[in-house]
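User: I'm new to structure prediction. If I give you an amino acid sequence, what do you actually give back? Let's try with this one:
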Amino acid sequence: MKKGHDRKTPTIRERLANWISTPAGPIRRKLSTENQEEIRHILLSPVSWFKGVDTPEGHVTPWELAIFAISTMLTCGGGGFSGRLDFLFKEYYHISPNKMSVAGVISSLWDAFNDPILGSWMDRKKMGAKQWRFIMRLAAVTGHTLVLFKMINFGGNMTEMQHLVTLVTLNCIQDIIGTLDAVAGQKLRAGISPYTQQRTRTQVWTSIGNSLGFVIAAIPNVLMGLQGVFGWDDYQIIVVGTAIMLPFNIGGSMMITFIRQRVDFKYAGKPVNSLPYDMDQGFTAPEQKEEKKAEEPQPTPEEIKQQKTEAREAKKRYYKALVERDQMLAGMTRKDRREWKKNEKAKKKAEKAQRKDFRKMVESGEIKIDPETGEPKLSVLQSFEVVKYNKYFIWNTVANFITVFTPSVDSTLIYRYLVPRFKINGKEVTGEIFLTIRDYIIGIPLTCTKPFSRQLVNICGGPLRVHKIHSVCQIIAAVIKFALGINKFWKLAIQMAIDAALYVIQDMDSVAGTMLTYEMLDLVELKTGFRTEGVTNSINGLLSKIVTNNIGTVTGNAFLEWTGYRGGYKESGEALPSRFVKYMWPMFTLSSAFDNLVFLIARSMYKHTPEDARRIENELIEMRRHAAGDPDDPKEGERVPVYANKE
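Assistant: Good question. You get back a string of structure tokens that encode the predicted 3D arrangement of the chain. For your 647 residues, that looks like this:
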């Protein structure tokens, strides 16, 4: 036997892993030590890496990220059919756009009553991951089933009014289910990791799943574009497709309920803000407060008598001050008196704001503690007062309120009727086919950048800056597309190139929104001790529903009615109204430019840097550790790696 023949020869995988770990070459030098170790782990033990073996504390495992991607892929794919409800009512049932608006207004009034109250109520209830999972699973079954019931014609025996009554009734029921599901999902996502960067990874993979699901979601457009070839009508395509995708929608919505929870917001049964935290002084442990109180000497009878005497003297001084104040005001001019009252009002307002410390309100007993759950019992008004610390949420709400009346224009109608048609095997095919081809092509660059969206946001200077970049790019692109028009294929080709770049920036903007949402919720918890996913998510959901399904649709339907649109032009062969042809494209493009301008202004009204996010995150982790009764440093094996918060 030759010398060294019994020595094990490294496999190709081992040699590649060793090569990665060697800090040489222009590419490998850019990899951090942590990235090198992770790549090495993937190459040597792909199965254990996927399962999350040796994953640092607080990090999301690869299999959990895969669940987010698959879940979104299934729900997004099914949404391609179930999301055609409004289109079906107008084009197939020929219901007047303004009558659809009436149904939308009733639904929006219910939203306004239900969502914020239900969300704040959920914030005040003692619920853990088990309860949130149950709510999401129940909502998955009932919510998706109700969508199918809203579409069904029941054998063609329903009148227009019966359709609308059924739609409104099911909308109200579905809104309750949707609010419960949205808040529960936000709670579970917030508990998946204490690190913003890790929680943002789930959004990145959600976005990847969204792109994968688009392949299925585009099928209705293809089938409607080929109606002349196969002979299927809109009802068969949309309703039958929704029924087929129903189990996939339900399964996809349930999948994220299997994600592990790494953050316990209940702090071992203690009130959330039982541990006072001062941004300058740090923490005051509860046991230290009790010891200090026990050491304080009790007052003697003489001291109690002295305190009562001082209280009486203070009362006399108070009334004397009132007399002196009235005398002073009597000697002032009217202008000086107004100025004095203005200053006093500002001083009292500042003192009131200083007294409105939610931690002190718990300590003083102003906010009661539930004896069974150990949780603060916030009123609905107090829940909203806590939200004032979330500047991102406040200014987003302002922008949503301003843009809520912008008409919502269905792009499917534009490509169905206004884009030039072409022929396949001698049969004319409408623009829905072109819309699908366009979406596939412009999604190619996005497919390459999606896995790195979080890193791109960090490179660009953080989520707030990405929000601003996105708004500016959308405004410029909308103006260019408006000027080009859609009457020629070469113009559409230029717009495809513009949209390909916009899709990449839009994906970064979505990730940036997730990052800022979690960072601001953490900031609220750091300042007040309360988590406010329920209130913020319910209001966000309310505004989102108003924009997409109600007021935006109301103004959009009014605009359609003004153009003379009645629906069914494809089947009847009637000529399109001249106003529809002239104004649909300008409204579609310029309304987007207006909305993005409003959001650009709103997001310029506050400041938040990546450095602020890291500081908040680190202080919050420290606060949670103290609140959980662990004032000492964690054991070496439990210590969170220092690179956990790095990019």
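You can read the tokens as a compact description of the fold. Here is one thing that stands out. Confidence is low (pLDDT under 50) at residues 1-6, 267-289, 633-647.
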